[in-house]
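Hello forum,

I keep getting stuck at the same step: I have a sequence, I want structure tokens, and every attempt I make locally crashes halfway through. Rather than fight my setup again tonight, could one of you with a working pipeline run this one for me? It's a single chain of 187 residues.
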Amino acid sequence: MADEKQAAKTALRKALRTARGGLDPAIKVQWDAHIGAQVVAWWRLRQVSVIGVYWPLAGEPDLRAAYAELHQAGVRLALPVVMERDAPLTFTEWTPGEAMLPDEAGVQVPAQLRFIERPPALLIPCLGFNADGYRLGYGGGYYDRTLEQPPRPHTLGIAYSKQEAQFSHAPHDVPLDVIVTETTHVT
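Reply #2:
Ran it on my machine without issues. Output:
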């Protein structure tokens, strides 16, 4: 039974990755701008001083324009860093435009790591999500382990609406506060 569930999640991840990869680039740019505008609007209402962001991979929504706007408004930005397998994420301060290098997994991180405490708000990319706010990621569990650690940050899952899927969550999975897509109007 566990093997069947794992196989189903693997197949779902593959289907969601393929669907996301098939987006028209011009539409993706428009959708990314709408998602980014919602993130900025969310921040304007809450004024958190530090936000954990992500570097876009494999067709994830690219919110770097919104990151630049947040940075110009005085928000400190932080990128996640994997320091060890099966552990929570660590965060490093990041300024848009600074020199970046790929880490061991090929993810861009600042050339000069400046570690900070976990931010009070996190933007979390979703490969998939369900109606209950659970995220389907790539299977490493890094964000779930990060969210298990108190205090719980505000969490905004970032995805495209076509990535909503039906799947069950495991006991260790942590639901996100809100999912932001090109069709939502989060404030």
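The mean pLDDT is 93. If your local run keeps crashing, start a new thread with the error log.
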